[in-house]
Every structure is written in structure tokens, then in C-alpha cells.
Amino acid sequence: MELYSLLLIPLFLALAALLIGRSRSFGAINALGYLAELSCGLFFSAAFLERPEPFTRGLFFVDSLTIFFVLVITIVAFAAALYSIGFLERERRQMKVTDKKSGYYYFLFNLFILAMLLATMVNNLGLLWVAIELTTLISAFLVGFYNTKFSVEAAWKYLIICSVGIILALLGTILFAYVFSLTGGISLNWSDLSAAAGQFDPDLVKFAFIFIIVGYGTKAGLAPMHTWLPDAHSQAISPASALLSGLLLKTALYAIIRYGLIVVKCVGFGFFSHLMLLFGLFSLLIAAGFVLAQKDLKRLLAYSSIEHIGIIAVGIGLGGPLALYGAFLHLLGHAAAKSLMFFGAGNIIQAYDRHNMNSIRGVIRVLPFTGLFFLAGLFALAGFPPFSLFRSEVMILMSAFGRGSYLIAGSLLLFMTVIFGALVFHAGKMIFGPRPPEVPPAKEDLAGKLAFIFLLLIIVVLGVWVPGPLDRLLILVVDTTRGI
Questions:
Q1: How confident is the model over 412-451, as pLDDT tens digits?
Q2: Which residue ranges make up each domain of the chain?
Q3: CA 150 to CA 140: how far, in whole Å?
Q4: Residue 296: what are its φ and ψ, rounded to 5°?
Q5: Would the pTM of this model clear 0.85, i.e. be above it?
Q6: CA Rg value for the chain
Q7: CB neighbours of 356 closer than 8 A, spacing ≥ 6?
Q8: What is the pLDDT of residues 205-235, one digit of tens each?
Q9: HEC secondary structure over the chain
Q10: Could you tell me the end-to-end alpha-carbon distance of the chain, in angstroms, rounded to an integer?
Q11: Phi then psi dihedrals of residue 122, to 5 deg
């Protein structure tokens, strides 16, 4: 029942947004809906852990990897729904959003969540492609939501670059179907391809996977296919920026992992590993360079997302239980921490009416609650203890040193150190210092505060203790992906 409820709740809320979305009370209704969605996700996870066997149901395939990504999506979606209540109300007061446009936002918000959930739950790789293409089309409207010159330009850039990527992913999907057909198979179901992977032509599989990793890697924000990401994240409405960074990048990474499992069964781990390590380390290199030179607050966070996708890719590319556990723990921790940071950035930009970090000072005096949590989120992103990203990064580094990959470990340490210094430098100037006289102290709403507390609790708790059910789920995910 929870399986279908997970899809029906955002679908119902999207339809409701068309009918009553103009009402200022709809934000609360939407948040309650996502509280129910999170509850369904938790019940779904608990039911799976009682009998952790993969199963198919109609068009859907469910295993530990599916459960984990569903859980990440429902956690961040609930926080974003909470934060949206006060954020949109302030946008209305500042005459940036009308009641009609508020309903339009909630309609897109719910369709976006629905498409990402669908992508992680379908068995058919063709439907997976359709769902990820839907995320592009829906989120493009959230990027261009304000209809300014820069936001429209960013939306078009996002559409064009990601459409090229998704076309390459389609070619890869067609090639995988062709490879399967050579063995007598006529299905595009992942479960069928995975079972027959040992019979595939290795050279054709390698060729097909290059299209997949470049195509879906474009959506995942892996460098050098990342160029849409800084513009889109900086121009999107702030709750949508959190969804783009916290969820969309991971959904595309999910697709790469699914195909990676087939590739490894066919050609071995080395080919997949080398590609993931290459793109992961290059993403870290690009992020380190651009974070240093950033002036725009949301672009800074966008390049930080490229860094963390790179870290996750490196963890998956290293393989082995410790690296994989660290990579998936990092994925969850980053989804929570980056969402918190984009919420904080949204509050700061609303209060100061500017993006340029050089002209933002005294945040802790203008927005005391936001400033404190933004600072905590900053240290979490930088991999500082006791936050979960420190723990997951240490796991990945330990795995790299343990297998003798000293160059990879050294590169990780170098890039993370550079980015840590840049983040502290930029954020320190914004948070502290005198309050500009033209910027009065701003009011912070209760729902937004609850979203901050909810996300910070996750990254703090996971930094010192992984609850038993989540630990079991992560171990199951590692077992599922150990072929990688």
C-alpha cells in the first residue's frame, strides 16, 4: 500500500494545487501532505527491512537501493515543503510572487517530487529515462520561476544542456536494449537485463555505458558536464534549489548506479571504477577552482554540490563495503546539509535583496536563527566533526588508503581542504561583522525554523550514531551494490 501511496500523495497534492493553490493556507496543507509522505517512506522502509528481499510489482522494482533513495527523497521533500510556507509568504509580501503564482509553484513542486520518486521505483529502464526527462521539463519552470532575464536564460541553458545529456542517455538505453536482444531478450526491465548481463557482448556494453555515464552524468552534475548547474541553482526559487541539489543530482546518480550494476556483471569492476573515479576527481578539481573565485552565494553552494557529487562518485568508484557505506551515508548527509544551506541562502537573499557575498555582512544580527544554522551547515558541508559528512568522508578516505590508492586519497584531501578554506572564508565575512544600516533585523517564521532543526538533527545524529534500522538499510544497499 505504501508503494502506491508514495506516488499518489504528490499526485493528489499537485492536482489540489491547481484547484486551491492560490489559498495562503495551501502551504500548510502541502506540508501535512509531505509529513504523510515521509511517514509512508518510513513505513515502506520498515516493512522492507522485516523481509529484505527484492520484489517486482507491476511496473515497479523494489530493492534496498530503491528504498534508500525513496527515503532520501521523502526526507528532503518534507523539509522543503515546511520551508516553502514562510518563504512564499515573504515573497508575497515583497510583491515577488502572486497568489496565482504560488499555486503554480506548488503544482510544479509536487510534480517534480513525483517524477523523482517514479525514477527510483520503476523497473523498466525506458520508463526510468522518461521519468528523468520529466524532472528536466518540470524543474526548468522552477529555474525560470521569477521570469527575469537571468532566470529565463538559466532555464534555457539548463534545458539545452540537459536535453543533450538525456539524448545521450537515450542512445545508451537503446544500445543496452540492442545488446540484450542479441541474447534473445526483448525486455527493458532492469531485473531482466541484470540477470542476463553475463551473456552480453563486453565491448558493446562498454560503449553503451559511456553514453549512459555522460548522459545521466550531465544531470548528476559531474564535471565537465556540469555547466548548467551553477546558473540553474543560482536562479531557481530557493526551495527548488534545495530540491535540485539535494535530490535531482542524486536521482541521476541512481540511474548511473543501476546501469553500473549491469556493466560490472558483464565486464568486471575495473571499467566502471575507472570512469567513476575519473569523473569524480575531475568534479572535485573543477569545484575547488570555482569555489575560490565565487561572489554569488547560491553559485557558491552550486559548486559545492559538484564537489560532493564528486566525493560520492569517488566512493562508489573505489568500491568495497567501507567506501560504499561511506558514499551512501554521504549522499544522505549531503542531501540534508545542502538543503539546509539553500534554505539559509534563501532567507539571506530575501533579507538583503542581493546575491553578492561581498555586500552581505552581519547575517547573525539580521537573521540570528538562520545565521547560526547557516554556520552549522557550512561546517557540515566542509566535512567538520561532529557532522555526518565528516564521518562519511573519513570512511571513503580510509577505504582509499586501505586499498593503497594513495593518489586518490591525497587528491581528495587536497581538494576538500581547498574547498573547506574557501567556504569558511566566504561565509565568515557574511555571517559576522556589522549589520548594514539599510538592512533591518528580519522576522523568521516557525515552519522555516522547524525545517532547519529537522535537517540539522539528521546531520548531527548521523555524525555520531547511525540508528539501527538505517544502519541495516545501508548494509543492505552495500550488499546490493557490492557487485560494483
A1: 999 999 988 888 888 878 888 787 877 787 888 899 999 9
A2: 2-481
A3: 13
A4: -85, 130
A5: yes
A6: 21
A7: 295, 296, 297
A8: 999 999 999 999 999 999 898 889 888 988 8
A9: CHHHHHHHHHHHHHHHHHHHCCCCCHHHHHHHHHHHHHHHHHHHHHHHHHCCCCEEECCEEECHHHHHHHHHHHHHHHHHHHHHHHHHHHHHHCCCCCHHHHHHHHHHHHHHHHHHHHHHHECEHHHHHHHHHHHHHHHHHHHCCCCCHHHHHHHHHHHHHHHHHHHHHHHHHHHHHHHHHCCCCCCCEHHHHHHHHHHCCHHHHHHHHHHHHHHHHHHHCCCCCCCCHHHHHHHCCHHHHHHHHHHHHHHHHHHHHHHHHHHHHHHCHHHHHHHHHHHHHHHHHHHHHHHHHCCEHHHHHHHHHHHHHHHHHHHHHHCCHHHHHHHHHHHHHHHHHHHHHHHHHHHHHHHHCCCEHHHCCCHHHHCHHHHHHHHHHHHHHCCCCCCHHHHHHHHHHHHHHHCCCHHHHHHHHHHHHHHHHHHHHHHHHHHCCCCCCCCCCCCCCHHHHHHHHHHHHHHHHHHHCCCHHHHHHHHHHHHHHCCC
A10: 31
A11: -75, 150
Amino acid at 38: L
The set of cell numbers assigned to 198 is 553475463
